[in-house]
Design goal:
This protein has 4 helices and 3 strands; from the N terminus they run αββααβα. By secondary structure, it is an alpha+beta fold. It has a single domain, classed as HIT family, subunit A (2-Layer Sandwich), CATH 3.30.428.40.
């Protein structure tokens, strides 16, 4: 995928990156812990029968998450991590990326 590193993320790009990297549409969540914000790739994925969302609900969820990531200014870091993360999500163990939020944005997000 030829996307400039500083370009905003799109939902379709993120879904494509997940599928290319791990051959599944994994769930993504933002988690706040001890004053830090993490992007987590969860072990559940769209292609599982027990996944709670259908395809359109999953796309809406990823779209909303991407809006937040872009507004936090972390698109390049997320894009790079999704392309290069050496691990894979396993049952009960999510992958976590600690987001380095720009000054001022962290306090706004962590209210």
């Amino acid at each position: 995928m030829d996307v400039p590193p500083d370009a905003p993320l799109t939902a379709s790009e993120v879904i494509t990156l997940l599928r290319q990297r791990w051959q599944a549409s994994y769930d993504l969540q933002l988690v706040r812990r001890r004053g830090r914000v993490y992007l987590q790739v969860m072990w559940a994925y769209l292609e599982q029968q027990s996944f709670p969302l259908d395809a359109s609900g999953y796309e809406r969820h990823i779209s909303e998450l991407v809006l937040v990531l872009n507004s936090l200014g972390v698109a390049a870091a997320v894009r790079s991590w999704l392309q290069q993360c050496p691990d894979r999500p396993r049952l009960g163990k999510a992958l976590s990326l600690a987001l380095e939020l720009p000054p001022g944005r962290a306090s706004e997000f962590l209210l």
